[in-house]
# Entry
Amino acid sequence: MKKGRLEAFSDGVIAILITIMVLELKTPHDTDWQALRPLVPVLLTYVLSFIFLGIYWNNHHHLLYAAEKINGKILWANLHLLFWLSLIPFVTGWMGENHLAPLPTAIYGVVLLCAAVAYTILQSLIVAQLGANAPLARAVGKDKKGKLSLIGYTLAIPLAFVNQWIAAGLYVLVALMWLIPDQRIESRLSE
# Structure
């Protein structure tokens, strides 16, 4: 199977998720700076989630660019990833509206962890289909960033019940780690 439909569908889903998140931002009724104060946690969680969705979109693009064709396993793995990404608007709103309360902050981490696991599965299926000597396999290597992300989310989830600011800090650290696009895939594919 060709990958065009999968790319278009995934791009559309991610665009819709970002749209849903921005529509959840409520406009203040007052016109002074104080009216924005209660919205700060909501806006900050929106920015963080927007960045995460952007990171997934960017890396998903690179991953599918490397794929030569798509099979049923890859289709299901991609749908699995999109399922977890589709929960990001919900957990973003819940965490933001409740000012980083422990349970919403932990559940936010669970969704991020599950999305990262789903991405890892999708990546491994594409790498397996291409073969161990393919440029993508060499580019991904041992996937240290992916493994560090999984560790960061796994630590943040229980830490949300101890200190939710530490958990949020771990989420930000993982995002910062991925904010710069992964050049390994681009450089290997251009060889």
